[in-house]
Amino acid sequence: MRKENPENSFSDVTEFLKFTLLSLKANESTPADPMTDDGAKATKGAGPRREERRAECRDFLEKWRIDCWLKNHRDEVWGPEVLLSDKVLTKLAATASLQTTEDIRDEVEGWWLWEVYAQEVLDGLKAIDARFEAVKAAKEADRLEQQRIERERRAAIASAERQRMLEEKERKRILKEAAAQEAKRQKEVKRQREEVKRQKEEQREEAKRQRDEAKQQKEEAKRQREEAKRQREEAKRQREEAKRQREEAKRQREGERAEAEAGRQRRTRRKTTTHKPHLIHPHLLDHALRSPCTV
Q1: 35-90 pLDDT, tens digit each
Q2: I want to staple 257 with a disulfide (CB 3.0 to 4.6 A). Which of 57, 133, 211, 293 is the partner?
Q3: How far apart are CA 231 and CA 109, in angstroms?
Q4: Torsion angles phi and psi, residue 46, rounded to 5
């Protein structure tokens, strides 16, 4: 440990007391600023850091405060909280809009060593911001990629759904056409069956008509045969009647001839008997009268 000079020690104590008074005066005279949930004032521009980034910035500043004090001010009578007060640390950790030393000069009050360490603190905070921005950009890129994949997936689903709907529409159209063709075929089959049935009915009617006509023809032929038979019998009867009439006429003629002959013979006999009665025997005369006359 280095040897202290009493004059230097007195000077350091004086500076420490002066800084403490200035800090108290600044805390009393600084008007209330709109603060974030951890005590940091909300600023324009990049806005306040939040959650994990703010916590990491706070851890960096607390570590930097201790490391810087140990490296450069460990022999001073004031501690790390004087090097960087909790209020200033909280504002630096929470406010991302502080990008230059001029920003710290204008917006951060109560940091008496800002000209010495502002750029070093900003570099550390910017490194954290850059790392978080890279992570954020990667997350954003991943989110955009996921959105793109999701859009493509939804587009593929929509395309598949449209294709499915088109296929369903085509399938329904094909089924409708098939149903119409089947109905047409069934109608044609029904018509053909009805036509076959009608033809069979006509054939049965024609066969029945032909059977009836054949029956009528048979009955007519039978009637004709009976009529012919009747006519033959009538002709036979007429022939027999004619034969009988001829025979009757013959008998009449024969009787007439016989009577004529008998009359002639009687006349002759009378003449003979009148002139020569002894020449005609009575028995012969009687036989001549009884015998038929022949022509």
Answers
A1: 433 333 333 446 688 888 899 999 999 999 999 999 999 888 888 898 888 999 99
A2: 293
A3: 162
A4: -70, -20
